Amino acid sequence: MTAELVRIVLGQLDVAILSYFLIVNSFYAALLASASVELWTHARRVRGESRWRVLGSDVAPTITVLSPAYNEAMTIAASVAALMRLRYANLEVIVINDGSKDQTFEVLRDRFALEPVHPIFDRRLPTAPIRAIYRSRLDSGLLVIDKDNGGKADSLNAGLDLAAGDLVCAIDADTLIEPDALQRMVRPFLLSDGVLAAGGTIRVVNDCLVEGGRVTRVRLPGRLLPALQVIEYLRAFLFGRLGWNRFGGNLIISGAFGLFRRDAVIEAGGYTGESVGEDMELVVRLRRRGRETGTAHQVDFIPDPVAWTEVPESRRVLGRQRDRWHRGLADTLWRHRALFLRPRYGALGLVGYPYFVLVELLAPVIEALGIVGLIAGLAIGAVDVTFALLFFLVAYGYGLLLTYATLLLEELSYHRYSGGREMLRLLLVATIETFGYRQLTVLWRLRGLVAFVRGRRAWGAMERRGFRAG
Amino acid sequence: MIPADILRIVAVGELLLAVALGVTLLIAASWRARSDRRQRADMARGRPIMIATVARDLTASEVAALERLGRRTQVRLLAEIAPSLSGERRARLGAVAVRLGIARSAESACRSRRWWRRLQGARLLTLIGAGDEVMPALLGDGHPLVRAQAAEWASDHPTAATLRLLVALLDDPHRIARFAVQDTLLRVGHPAIGVLAEGLLRMSARGIEAGLAVASRVVDPRLIPIAAALAEHDLGDVRAAAARALGAQGGEVAVQVLTRLIEDEDPRVRAAAAASLGRLEHWPSATRLLPLLSDPSWSVRRESALALRAMGAPGAVILRTALTGEDRFAADIAAQALALRLGPA
């Protein structure tokens, strides 16, 4: 009797879960189609473009790069040197040492010949106490804020207060930005007065060759875990984020590389230190505020400005990162629950927000239900092995097809991983990513969801190997 | 429960599609790698010939070699070399582009119905410095990127007629076009200023602001009466822009207007006027800036303090007066300005 009941429940469950996979992946397919159109239009817009106008113009918008650093002694010198080599006329770089316990500040002070300064600035955003502000004697465009530890959001707020640029570019200290990335990133702000923020592509730097703060040779990482993340990043940025440009705009701009209107961010109250997903929370708040006040609320994603980031190489650190990302997602969606299906917020309330709740937030729950149901069915003999395998293949096969299609998009557009051999490796890694790794991320994301419900807010430490020098 | 047969059919379908996509990817990646190698070899062959064009006339065999490279490589070579050339050397490169038929096809592209074709054509003509017949018309194109490109082209072709069209474009609703015009006017410099001064009074507020932003980056006495007149404008943004432009010019009239503007009702105007007096280092105005250190607006207090600091000793005296005065805000901003002055920056 009980076995029969379980069989009936499982019978309904597999239809529901497969339908969920079908709907979600079909939406992904729509995003992929949208991203393809965007790439096509973008390629036409930028073909033959000479960006030296923006580079050399006095009237180009001024940009302040904000780089918060906490215990980044290993990579900080290379990262800041790369920032100082960015090709942009009106550039200011502010590094915020967030009370590092290692030698981060000492490395900065010695490498860039820092001297204390006393600038006049309006402290509109409250932050942890600032110990001192320094300017480099080697390059007057470099400022360093040395402050008590207050977290990433707090550091960014300190930088926002001091920043003089029309636009601020928030990056992670371990991020390498391509020299002409800011010239590309500033485009949407020149094209439309309604643009509030813009995001660029993040790629994985592990095992790439870095010379003088620039990635000179792109390689797929030799170790499996970072290689799997290459696939994830390609899928997330090349079609995930780009596709949203035609579906009402993005809800996320990566904290590792995003450009914002400074006045809008300050008026919105800056970054919130109460959320572990401060980057997403800010974008959602800015867009929501723009809608409510009838001001700029457009958030664009541009595929060609590229920043390179070091991804975790151990399962433990990666698990912590994904746990935190999911907590951040849950926290942001909870804070802005008033957006859900509200026509007042346009596509943000009717498409973007519901998608992030039903797909991004709840996906691990549904996937876990499917996997557990399948295992339970096998255990009690409600389903046979062939059915279980077929169900698993069908559910995840659609996702694999989309990943292959993303690789095709990458090959036809930027093809950073060149040659047949590298592509063969990418195909293999993409397959492993679908059947094995993805299920592992379900566990981490579920852990994040549970931690959010329990109210845990810790960040967890990131371990760095440093860039591979040429 | 879903029938296993249906699952089997779907799984086989997905598998076949995955194999097809995988094979396509491998072929595409291999083909692309080979094509890139060929392109690099073509570029290596064509580069010395293209570089030689800037120094001497090409032989018939060299022209034939360039023709054999194909249009894509020819354009890439031009794009690589042209930005670092100017004057006669750039003209010689342009002449080769005309000889190869690149200019003709670009002009034809400029007449296309598709905006991206017109944009490509305009970019090519800008690169090779040709297109006198088709480019001025593109300043009135329907697409902002094409208009912006035409404005960029105009910096190398600053005829009176083109400059008039350019100045009119300062009113463009798209920022990209306004940006390109501002940049071009700054590059052209003094020949453009007369036309700008004439055009400024006939524009909307948006155009005036864009024009005054140019005026605040050049020094030309013809701009003073125009900026002084615009300092009376109804909109605070325009008055602030006029104050900034006057701060770039200097002179008795400019100072008179600026000392009036520091009492403007709009804090943005007061801040801009104070900053301009500081930019001019006009120390006789120092005492007039003292009340501004107590202004309700932080940016006015900041700009006034920085202006006083820029004025040297007379400004420092005023800052020290504020430091010991009763107004807490004035004392605070003065203290910050004096610390800045004493600091090593």
Describe the fold and architecture.
The complex is a heterodimer of chains A (470) and B (345). Chain A is an alpha/beta fold and 470 residues long. Helices cover 53% and strands 16% of the residues of chain A. Chain A is built from 15 helices and 12 strands. Chain A has helices spanning 2-46, 52-56, 76-84, 104-112, 152-162, 181-185, 187-191, 224-243, 262-267, 278-293, 315-335, 347-361, 363-380, 385-413, 420-454; strands at 63-69, 91-98, 114-117, 130-136, 142-147, 167-171, 176-177, 195-204, 209-211, 214-217, 257-261, 298-309. Chain A has a 10-stranded mixed β-sheet. In chain A, a hairpin with a 5-residue loop joins strand 4 (130-136) and strand 5 (142-147). Chain A is globular and about 75 Å long. The N and C termini of chain A lie far apart (68 Å). In chain B, helix 10 packs parallel to helix 12. Chain B has helices at 4-52, 60-68, 71-81, 87-99, 102-110, 115-128, 135-138, 144-154, 160-168, 175-188, 190-200, 205-215, 223-230, 236-249, 252-261, 267-279, 286-289, 298-310, 313-323, 328-342. With 345 residues, chain B is mainly alpha-helical. The interface between A and B is large, with 57 and 60 residues.
Count of distinct strands of chain B: 0
Structural class of chain B: mainly alpha
> Strand fraction band of chain A?
15-25%
C-alpha-based Rg of chain A, rounded: 23 Å
Number of strands of chain A: 12
Average pLDDT of chain A, rounded to a whole number, is 90
> N-to-C terminal Cα separation of chain B, in Å?
75 Å
Show the largest interface: A-B, 57 and 60 residues
DSSP strand (E) fraction of chain B?
under 5%
User: Which shape of chain A, going by the Cα principal axes?
Assistant: globular
Average pLDDT level of chain B: 93
* Structural class label of chain A: alpha/beta
What oligomeric state do these chains adopt? heterodimer
Largest sheet of chain B: none
Low-confidence stretches of chain A: none
Task: Provide a count of the helices of chain A.
Answer: 15
